[in-house]
Amino acid sequence: MEVLKIKSDFVSSVSHEFKTPLTSIKALMERLVDGKVRDQGKMDQYFSIIAQDTDKLTRLVNNLLDFSKIEEGKKEYVFSDTDIVRIATEQVQSFKREQLMNGPDIRLEIAGEIPTLRADADALSRALANLLSNALKFTPPGKAIRVGIGSDGGNVLLEVEDEGIGIHPDELGRVFEKFFQGRNALDQSVKGTGLGLTLVKHIVEAHGGKILVESRLGRGSKFSMVFPIKS
Q: pTM for this one?
């Protein structure tokens, strides 16, 4: 019965994650196709929203495909010299574009010179996108999300810190479990697949790193991806 409930909740969550952006895209496209929008500024805004919703759907599909490959033991990574600063800059800019108004302020902070990593660039980009997406869901307007990059000589640290609702202390050890939904998320009816953090953990560990989480209820959470610098 527990497995059936997990499956049912997962299907419901995935359906919601698809339905919301698809409904938005359909409604905006209908207005554009019917010629009901003639103001160029309004048209640009509609196209921007459609592009953002498409990005959300792409992230969701990629997460589902990656999860399937991981479950089947078929997930492979392609390692090359990777500029993590470039990846973080691109993701922060992308998520900033999604916040049309009244969203959390997303800041990028880079501490000193950051060495390149031997890594799968697409996988690191996806891991950061999942952490940012998660932070946005739980951070109210007017608050901030900080993306920090630093190095301690032996490791590169990539952090996502928010000023959101936080995580209950007894749930910190479970946030990386597949399909897990915390009490705060359920209380606030925040939908999700419960796969994002599971995928982040798999990506980080596949790179020989580790992921850490700190949180205070009502004050926010910080997720730290620690990647070893390999010569």
A: 0.80
